[in-house]
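User: I'm curious whether this sequence folds into something compact or stays loose and floppy. Could you predict its structure so I can see for myself?
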Amino acid sequence: MQTGYGRAWRRWDVVAVVGLAAWLLLDLTGRTLFGSVPWPQSAVDYRILYDASRHVVETHQYPAGYPYPPPAVAIHAVSAVLPFGASASIWLALTGLAAGACYLTLVRALGLHQRPGLLVLVPLAHAVVAYYFQWDMRSINCNLIVLATVLFGCAALARSRDRVAGFWFALAVALKVFPVLVLPYLAWTRRWKAFVSAVVFSFVLWVAVPVVAFGADGFGAVYGGWFDELTRATDPGTKDNHPILISLDKAALYAAAGDAAQAKGIALAVCVAWVLVGLAGAAGCLGKRERNAASILVHVSLLVLGPVAVNPYLEAYHLVPLAIPALVLLAVAADLRRPVQVRVVAAVGFVLGMAILKVSSPWPLRGLLVNAQALVLCGTAVWVTWALVRVATSANETPVGGKARGLAALVRRLVPGAKT
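Assistant: Here's the prediction. I'll summarize afterward.
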C-alpha cells in the first residue's frame, strides 16, 4: 500500500506524463497541421520520401539528394501506394507513436515507473533533445521510427529475447544505415543468437525485399544508384550548398576562418575523442552478455551516435538518440541507492550536456556544439555505467535496470547452507 508521500509523488508522475505528451503533440502538429503551410504540403521530408520511393520503384533510378538504402525505399513505397494525403497522415501518426514509444521503452527498461516520482525525469531529459525531436516531427522524417526500433532491440536484449532483438536491429539498419555498428557489437559481447538473427533478417531485408520490390532485373541498378548517391552526398560541394547541414567538417571550417589545414585538425581532434569514448565503451562490454538495461542502452546509443555525429551529411534530427544517455544519466543521478560520487558525475554530465545546447552560436558552428554535447553525454554515461558495474560486482548485485542479488548474498552469509 502506498503512503501519502508515495501517492503525492504519483500525482507528479501523472503531471509529468501528461505534460510530456502535450509537448510532443504540440511539436508534432503545431507546424504540420496548424502552421502557415497547409497540410499535407507541410510534410516536407515525407514528400521527398513519398515521391522518391515511387520513382525508384518505377524507374530503378535514384533521384539526386536521396541517400536512403534500397530496403528503406521498398518500405516507404508500401505506404506510397496511397494518395499523398493519406500516406502522410499515416506517417504523421507513426512519428508521434514512435516518439511516445521511445520514452515508454526507456522508462520500462530503466524501471522508472516502479518508483514514485521518477517519471518527472522524462520531460527533463526531453528538454535536452526536444530541438532534435522537433526537426523530425515537423518535417515527418523517419529518425524517431529508427530510434524506436533500436530501443525495442535494446529492451529485447535486456529481457533475453535475443532473436527478437536481432530482428529489431536489422530493421533499424535497413531503415537508415547509421545503427550498423550495433551488429558487430552483438558479436563483440558474444550475443550469438542475436547476431545470427540480425544477419538472417538483414539478408531478408537487404536482398529478398528489394528483389520483390524492384525485381531481379532492377536489383543491381537500384543498388548501383544508391552507391552513387552515397558518394555524391559526401562530396564537399554538396555539403557546402546544403543550407541545413550541421556537419563537423562545415563547423570546423567556420571555426578555423576558412583555414583548411586548421579545420582538418579540429575535425580530427573531435574524431579522436569519439574513438577514445568508443574504445572505453568497447572495453567495458567486451565479451559480457550482461542483461543490464542501462549498460546496453548506453553502449548501443554510443555506437549509433558516434557515426551520426561525424557524418558529413549530419542534420539536426539525426541526433534524436541523445535521449538515451540523457535519461540514463538522470536515472542514475536520482537513484539514492547509488554511490554519491557516481550520482554527482551523472548530474554534472547531464547539466553540461544541456548547457552546451543553450550556447548561442552561428548556424555554421552548430556541428561542433552538437558534437561536444554528444561527447559529454555519451562519455559521461559510459563512465557512469562502468562505475556502477564495478560497484555492483563488488556488492554482488546488478546496477540500474537489472535485478538485485544483494539480498540473496546477505541471506547466504547469515544462514549458512541456505538456498536462495
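Summary: The CA atoms of residues 150 and 267 lie 28 Å apart. Residues 402-420 have pLDDT under 50 and may be disordered.
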